[in-house]
# Entry
Amino acid sequence: MKEIERPTRNNLEGIGGWLNPLRYGWERISYWFQRLTGVFLLIYFIGHVYETSTIVNGQNAWESFLELTQTVWGHLFLIMVIGASTFHSANGIRLIFTHAGIGLGTPGRPDYPYNPASLNYRQKSGIWIALILAAAAMFYGFNVLFGV
Amino acid sequence: MDLMSCLECNESIKMASRTILKESQIMKIHYITGIAAIFVVALHIMMRLVVPFEQSLEYDYIIANYKNIIYVLILESILVLISVHGFNGIRIILLELRQSRAWENMVTVVTISAMIGLISYGTRTIILANGL
Amino acid sequence: MNNTAIDNKNEQKITLKVYRENRGQDSGSHHDTFEVPYKKWTTVLDALLYVKSYMDPSVAIRYSCRMASCGSCGMKINGVPKLACYTKISELETSTIECEPLPNFPIIRDLVTDFSRFFNHHKRMEPYIQTNDSTEADTSKGTFSFNQSPEDVDKYLQFSYCIKCGLCYSACPTVGTDLNFPGPQALAQQYRYFADTRDESKKRLDIVDDRHGIWRCHFAGSCSKVCPKGVDPALGIQLLRSYMLGISKNNKVPAKKIEVNGNNNNNNGTDTE
# Structure
């Protein structure tokens, strides 16, 4: 049987390609943010499930864990979580629409300067709305947590 | 590589990815859990904000919430939806990083186990807190 | 060195930094720097050919048509995949131009890369018209033409403009790590045939419904951003995905076959449009 040549990873961009989002426009930046916030939120969620489980060990256990989280750094971390979850949700909704082919335009006859129909103002404004909502949520969270 | 070795390559790719669910079914679950999670998490956050923030963290207040069956159902659905959505997301990222049958099987086993583990641990908290 | 090729008092010079490596000799990589004269309309390909002609003939590059039609001269220019013949030095607005081989393609030598994996992914998509009518190939009974309206053609035309330059494959973040991902070009071509009313294959969606298939596209959009022909592969991929999600219904009406006899007379008077 003919041996299949193992494909080479020669010259692959690798994770470095994921981590450098600045070369290709806003859609690539939003891809980078969506991945980052997704992983960050999963890590937070695992910590949150553990954190909330301390309540079954009684009031003392719960309150001693609160001393760890109800600090300035804890609140700042929570504000990051608020921003990440708002961006991930809003951008995720935009992505579900685009994956369904909605908001992308229709195929046509391209002409110079060959601007792609799919990278249109709807996508860019969707990304911007997600960023603005995230910033607003973080601002609101800051007001609630720091009692300003 | 000629067309024949390309077809062999195709077979090896297909063999590596024999699954119980088709990828399109998994991704539909990913989208649905994502959308549903937005609603239930929004409810969860709103319930934290109907009272002053400090009060929302008091032991007695939280235990009282755990006794409320509707709140319990919301928490359980958050747990399930976010675990499924999140660990499927990690599965996707890990599958993109490396490709071999051993790695892909390991990723599937680890992410499903982690999903079940987290849901079990969270459900335990909910059941015990409800019974306290 | 007799520099009679360009004799212009207004000529400027640019620094061209070219990646050099010979994988066959396993000698490591480095960059060679060349000072190249240029004018307003000089392209990066012109500059590289100047280097080959007057400075270092051993620089390996691939090129052919010099007019963004063949797709041969794709390379990474200042960090972004571009066609060298289609990129004017004056547009880049930097004093140094860095030319590197296209990322995500194995390097053969200098700026020349191996397109085998790219072409194999394309072949996996079965990129040809498939019909259920086997008599179509039997020309002894006369030839057939397909009846397609301009609206039918518009559904897939832009995706047929693909010149397989590989820029989209280079820009894609998923291709950077996943060797089994077909890449934007192959997936867009799958849509091109799926949308074509002449094609009757029922397998097209199954070919890409795979854990390394269409679902590993996350609409980063880099493919469409770099495409020099306006193919917009990201659009094709999302449109194909909409069929797989059941959002778009496949109510494609196969194109009618019209018999054309050997005497160049249309039997059916096909002036239909």
